[in-house]
Amino acid sequence: MNILGKLLPTTIDFITYRSFSMTVPLYHLQKVSRVHVVDNSKLALDGNVYKRMPRIIHCYKKNNNLTRTRLTAGLGDKVLLAIKGQMKKAIIVGCQQRIRKPNVPQFDKNNVVLIDDDGNPIGTRILAPIPAFFRTRGDLAKIAAIATTFV
C-alpha cells in the first residue's frame, strides 16, 4: 500500500470510527412537521398546492402540571401552522404513529383542520376520515359535526 493510502482513510474506516447520535423516534407531531390540510376552505385548497407545504410552528398542548407547552402534539391537539405565509390555528385529526395504540386509528398522513380563534372550523366539510372519539369530546364536537367519515 502506498503512503497516500495510509494517510487517507477509506469510507469504511471513517464510518466505523465516526460516532453517530440517534434521537429517540417521536410518536407525535413536533415543530416543523409537514401536514396536509383536509378541509375545504379556500386557504386549505390553495395551501396544499403552494410552493411550501404547511408546517407546524407551535404546539399548544400543556404538560400535566407544568405551565409550559410540550414539544409534541397528538390527535385532537391544537397547533399553530405556517400556511401560505400566514399563521393559522389548526387541530390535528390524523397522525402517523410508529407504535400501534389501542383504540386509536392509524393514518398514513398527518392531517389537520384549520380553525379560527374561537375554535370553529373555517371550512364547511372535512375531506378525510377522522377518529370516532372526536364525537365524545366536547371541544371537538364542531369538527365531528362537519366530518363525512369516521374511523
Automatic annotation (TrEMBL):
GO MF annotations, alphabetized: structural constituent of ribosome
Alphabetical list of InterPro entries matching this protein: Ribosomal_uL14, Ribosomal_uL14_sf
UniProt entry tagged with the keyword Secreted: no
Gene Ontology BP terms: translation
Pfam families noted in UniProt: Ribosomal_L14
SMART domains hit by this protein: Ribosomal_L14 (SM01374)
Major localization listed first in the record, in broad terms: mitochondrion
Entry's family note: Belongs to the universal ribosomal protein uL14 family.
Protein name: Large ribosomal subunit protein uL14m
Naturally occurring in which organism (per UniProt): Rotaria sordida
